[in-house]
Amino acid sequence: MNVWLLGILAAFISGGASGVVAGVTATGIDPASFNWTTQLKNTFILMGLVFVISGVLGVAAYLAHSPLPRRPWTPEERAKETGKSIPAPPARIIWTQEERAKRLGTSAAAA
User: Fold this and answer.
1) What is the rounded distance in angstroms from the CA atom of residue 25 to the CA atom of residue 29?
2) For 20-48, how does the pLDDT look when each residue is reduced to its tens digit (9 = 90+)?
3) Which residues contact 35 (CB under 8 A, 6 or more apart)?
4) Per residue in 16-28, is it b (16+ CB within 10 Å) or e — as a string?
5) Dihedral of CA 59/64/65/69: which sign?
6) What average pLDDT does this structure show over 64-81?
7) How far apart are CA 19 and CA 61, in angstroms?
8) Interhelix angle for 40-65 vs 2-29, to 10°?
9) In the structure, what pLDDT confidence band is assigned to residue 71 with cuts at 50, 70 and 90?
10) Integer distance in angstroms from the first to the last C-alpha of the chain?
11) Rama region for 93: left / alpha / beta (φ>0; ψ in -120 to 50; rest)
């Protein structure tokens, strides 16, 4: 889930980065309406609008590729997908009271 959300955020930021490029480019195309001195507000409005629109398009493209976050696989699903067998669970040793007492060096009655 976190990877999916980070992907959406990255898609928005990378798509929105074109807003910065649009603002810089606009100052060269129409310096009377967009510049860094007298028309700074217009330049930032253009940059913001293009950032949001391009960011939304980037998110839409990401969602077309990865529409929902993937749920974690079960061991059976992973084995089926990779063609490998499911590993056996770790062995569990069960001792009798006498074995436990012998290993711990105490009497069976105290255990």
Assistant:
1) 6
2) 899 899 989 999 999 888 989 999 999 99
3) 27, 43
4) bebbeebbeebbe
5) positive
6) 80
7) 17
8) 140
9) confident
10) 47
11) beta
> And the tokens for 18?
């074109």
Identity (one letter) of the amino acid at 102? K
Helix, strand, coil shares of the chain, percent, nearest 5, are 65, 0, 35
Q: Which tokens go with 8?
A: 């959406």
**CA 31 to CA 23: how far, in whole Å?**
11
User: According to the model, what pLDDT value does residue 108 have?
Assistant: 55
Q: How many helices (H) and strands (E) does the chain have?
A: 4, 0
Residue 20: partners with Cβ closer than 8 Å, 6 or more residues away: 47, 51
